[in-house]
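INFO batch 0412 | record 1 of 1 | parsing
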Amino acid sequence: MINEKTSIEQQCHTLQHVTNNLLIDEGAHIVYVFNEHEKYVGNSLTFLSEGLDNREHIILVEDENFYITIKRLLKLQGYSEEEIQLISYYRNSDYYLPKKDFNIDIMMAKLEELLKGINETPSKRTRIWGQVLVLDSSISEIKKYEKAYDNLMYGKNIISVCSYNGLTMPAFFQNELLKIHQYIMLDDQIEKSPFYNRKNVSDTSNSEIERLQLLQQENTILKEKYETLLINSATQKEREKFLKMEKINAEKENSAKNLFLSQMSHDLRTPLNTIQGYAQIILMNEYKREHLNEKIKKIYNASEHLLKLIEEILDFTSIDTGSVKINKEAVQLKPFLEECVSSLMDITTSNITIELEDIDDTIWIEVDPLRFNQIMTNLLDNAIKYNNAKGIVKIYCDYDEKNKDITINVKDTGIGIGNEDLHLIFDPFYRTKKSERKSVGTGLGLAIVAQLTKRMDGKYGIFTEEGIGSTFWVSFKRSKRKELSDKCKKNGKIASTSLNKATSVLYIEDNLDNIEVMKGMLHEIGNVDLTSVTTGEKGIKQAFDIHPAIILLDLSLPDIHGYEVLNKLKSNPITKNIPIVAVSADALQSTIKQALVAGCSAYITKPINFEELTRVIERILEPSKQLT
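INFO prediction complete | emitting tokens
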């Protein structure tokens, strides 16, 4: 920005020299191709101030911001407001028309309007300074305009500076302008144009028009090639930027994974420490029966916690990949929530009070019962874990008459959640710093709630106040009532029962500890004759020899895969009708589905749940009971 008069004069003395000392008697038509905006302003200021000093007619055709700048700089030089007002100002956007409206006759009429009254005092010089807006106009159109402009001023006492931005003008465009202007001016110098000739101004032949059009076409081709190069360059830069961002995101993701694995290592080792610690104490010491039972109970509770962590991770993986199947049906809300609360109270050891407000018996919702149970269990478990000592968890419902939505709210009196964590609270593996200190876990519970709720076309959210508590909610469409099936009417745990007669069971399993666990569980069920083998080939042979009532098959065997054992038994007429139950530590839904499709009658995951094992055996041997 130019702030002082002296610096302006030093920069612009060449223009001042031309306008005052070259004896321009009949005026001059000057084309100014500028490259530096600061020098452009300085040259303009010198040109206009000289006109004010000489009491000449002055016309300025520029944008409004430029005019404001010129007025401010003239005031700094000591010119009064009245003197500055002698400059006739016109906006160049009003004067130069866009390509679609480019009309030489209209523009020349405007120019004549600008010069109106000047001819009345021919002895008084007129100065015109303006920046030509090329816009989308072609060289032939601009040149035609400049020719008409030159003819209008020729022989008159007018000095006109037609400025063009050299940074946006093609070289051939500049060369053509030299032919129809008497002087060529750059930022630091001005001289007579070596190509100016009156013949050039008057030449309007077809050959001239064709030549200009050819130049324009060639320039357009070059411009398109240049733009293509720019686009390719920009694309490459965008690609590099994208790869850089991908690298940053990958590093962040790896950092999050490392943090998660570190947290999981701690969370998994904590219950394992309890299991191994008490197990070693029991092995090293003799306890009374009641003390022994107490320690065993602690071991079992710790193992249940460990199993829950593992299942939570597997559940989220299945949901996230879309492999969880949703089977929606009408569910009566009140008894369902009562059962959820009852089941949770049976296993919780906290001193938290759970209050279930009265719910209308007529409310039914459209959900998958199994997945809705997961949602409510996770919400209740979350409300208990992050509550205060002797806190309260309230469950209540709201009904939206307009949208027919039922909202189930789980409100706690816990630590609440800060605003900085709200937008992340349903993200997988995310845990607030306060929750990390308060309780262990994977950080997947609420992510599972969000995923399952969306899969069932529901909504979810949270209301919270830090230090006061939080209310997590899910909502689903209200459904019409329907009769409960026999399966839904069973709302108590199925107790283990004894089989009426001794049953032959073959267990194909290579891990001896797993065999001992199975032997102990089947002993509790009663009337089971268990035969065990440790390889797949031995299992196939034993199946032919004893023809058991049930085969329990581990899928991971040392000699052949469990599926190969399954195929051989199912393809042989002698053994094809023997029910085969897969027993595996692989709890992925895809594996379970594959085993059932391959011919397994059921699939039991390790660690084996005694009640599940009982139900599977009873269902297979006594299908009339239909326990599951």
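INFO post-check: The radius of gyration is 45 Å.
INFO record closed
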